[in-house]
User: What shape does this take?
Amino acid sequence: MIRLLLKKKEDDILVLAIDVGSHKTCAVLSKLSNSGFEVLNFSSCPSKGLKKGNILDKDAVFSCIKTVIDGMNLDGNTEVILSVPSVFTTSLDKRYCIATKKKKISNQQLSRLFDTAYSDISNKDVSLIHLIPHVFYVDGVSVDNPVGLEGDILEMQSMMILSRHYRAVDDMLSLFKKAGLDVTYLIMCQIASYLSTVSDEEKNCRVLLVDIGGGKTEIGIFDKGVLKHFSCLPLGGNHFTNDLSIGLALPFNECERVKKMFSEVYTMPEDTTEIEVICFDGSVKTVSTDDIFSIINPRAEEMLLLIKSELKRYGFDGQLHCAIITGGVANMKGFSLLAQDIFEIPVRIGTVSVFDYEMEVSSKKQGAFNDLKKPDFACVMGAVMYAIELFKAQKNKTRSARLQWLKRIFS
Assistant: This one.
């Protein structure tokens, strides 16, 4: 069951945001207070035991979790927010209503409407991750905020995001429990990445969010902040690396280095460069940047065309204002330009905007944590932003404040 507010009531709250992906596992420890938001620590390590979000080796995944939280100085009151891939989720659109007896609608009545939605799935073999209100109705008339209005019937059209593979989610939570952490809240990857990268102007547009991880690509469509569609494709950055490993006859880790340092996906490099690489037997040979491009470019085009096919399938092709691309693949040179040609809309790389947020990071910490601004960390930093909003809603002490944030950002 989802929680609307953070559990701790003190002025200072420690929040640990964690993203366990197929390529890397990362954690960010932050302190939220009335005076601001400060990143205290962060850690990242290569992931093991996971493939496309699925746990293959529990011991290996547990080891990664322990690696990133060791030295974090956590206590029993630390809030833990975990991102989950959409492959574990499904959505359900439903409409709920309560009688208000022609009285002015209060925060308590709005809470009762939310509780009606929660109780609808409380006895089912699923777990509710997000309840996203899309539209409210007072006596059949749609409104943004029903509090203070008079009416006889209060209704809510909402999207419920539910865990689909309940055992997979439960297995992950049990690993955190084993590590001494109780996960307070789950947030779906697309929502997290959207929160950390979307600009104020884009919140008023229909935006395509593409988060390309190591083994999968998360897709989200947001219309003026409302999540309209989400899906997941079984392609990611590891496929580029694997193509290079086969095409160049090199070890996977060496190809990962080559991909990060020399990959160009949009145009053939003007000046061919020969670079030294280490072979399986430890010997050194040279490969050309032209050869790298001839392997990387077709895979990038295939991935982007599959995303475009997904947009066509659900009727969004030609209906979008812009696109944001996050994840490690977004760092590949020319990727946004190639995406712009294929999607035929403006495309930008989604760098993390949390550091420009209302609660700024302590200036003495900014230099040390510059990596957190990169698209690689959009998901985990989105979980941090989510905690900030929960903190602000708790301080306002009203459900309507929480509601207004839900409406403004992604519902």
User: Anything to note?
Assistant: The chain has four domains: 13-88+165-194+353-409, 89-163, 200-235+298-349, 238-295. The longest helix spans residues 289-313.
